Amino acid sequence: MDRQRFAKWSLCAVLLLCASAESSVIRTEKYFSVPIPAAGTKGIMSPAVIFVPNHGRLLDINITIDITHSCIFDLELYLVGPGSSRLCLNYYAYSEFFRAADYRMTKFDDESRVPVSQRQPYFTGVYQPRGGRLAVFDGIDPYGNWRLEIYDNIIGDAGKLNYVQLEMTVNPEPATIMFFFISIFRLGISKQKKYYQTLKYMPVRAKIKNPPGKNHFQISRSRL
Ligand SMILES: [Ca+2]
Ligand SMILES: [Ca+2]
Predict the structure, then answer these.
(1) How much is the mean pLDDT over the chain?
(2) Closest ligand, as measured to the CA of 138
(3) Domain total of the chain
């Protein structure tokens, strides 16, 4: 394969990579059995850490949680990204007190049409967070440790965290695409060099029978 054809092939590969990566969805889930709060019935939970191994640019994030707790009004849930971004998922004022148990596979998604404040526990379904928008994380590289932090603000009730899933829509970062392109190009150059080195020690007749390309064939003939 000559350099021109190889360059075209590489460019097509990169364009295909970019196109296919636009809709890439990554789901990272983890099961826990972490007491809320860490001790007693009021205080902070030990942070639940979810490691995301993928690089790229975050376009959208949704989070699903499962919590067993005898009074979830006690709880403030915070999602913390690998950078400094932080979001409260379920803000309530004390005047809004209600007594109910559990978040059961509750999904928070900015694109939901239902604010979580308009539904009752067990909140099984998909809801908008109350306290901010998950879009606060858009544009970051999702690689690294994400944390779910939970504060239990009232004495008398306790529970545990069971499950967290992060669902991310990610585009590959430009550096990743360039690395892919350069790797392919270097591989091609390396193979071509090897071919030319082999050709250097071939008999003249063999060169004519095995030309690497039109230009090289003409050069070989001129040396006859
Ligand atoms: Ca979303
Ligand atoms: Ca409590």
Answers:
(1) 83
(2) 1
(3) 2
What's the pLDDT at 214?
Answer: 47
Expressed in angstroms and rounded, the spacing between residue 107 Cα and the centre of ligand 1 is 10
Could you tell me if 146 and 41 lie in one domain? Answer: yes
What CATH number does the domain containing 89 carry? 2.60.120.260
Co-location of 120 and 215 in the same domain? no
- pTM for the model: 0.71
Supply the pLDDT for residue 218. Answer: 47
Distance CA 153, CA 143 (A): 31
CB within 8 A of 68, min separation 6: which ones?
101, 102, 159, 160, 162
pLDDT on residue 117:
83
Ligand nearest the Cα of residue 167 is: 1
Residue 144 and residue 36 share a domain = yes
Q: For residues 205 and 220, give the distance between their C-alpha atoms in angstroms, rounded to a whole number.
A: 10
Q: Which domain holds residue 86?
A: 25-171
Q: Same structural domain for residues 29 and 115? A: yes
| Centroid of ligand 1 to alpha carbon of 195 (angstroms) | 51
Do 52 and 147 fall into the same domain? yes
The pLDDT value recorded for residue 6 is 62
Cα 106 to ligand 1 centre (Å): 14
- Ligand 2 geometric centre to CA of 37 (Å): 7
pLDDT beneath 70, residues of the chain? 1-4, 6-23, 173-224
Q: Which pLDDT value is given to residue 55?
A: 94
**Ligand 1 center–CA 125 separation, angstroms:** 14
Do residues 127 and 10 lie in contact, with contact meaning Cβ atoms separated by under 8 Å? no
Using an 8 Å Cβ cutoff, are 56 and 114 in contact?
no
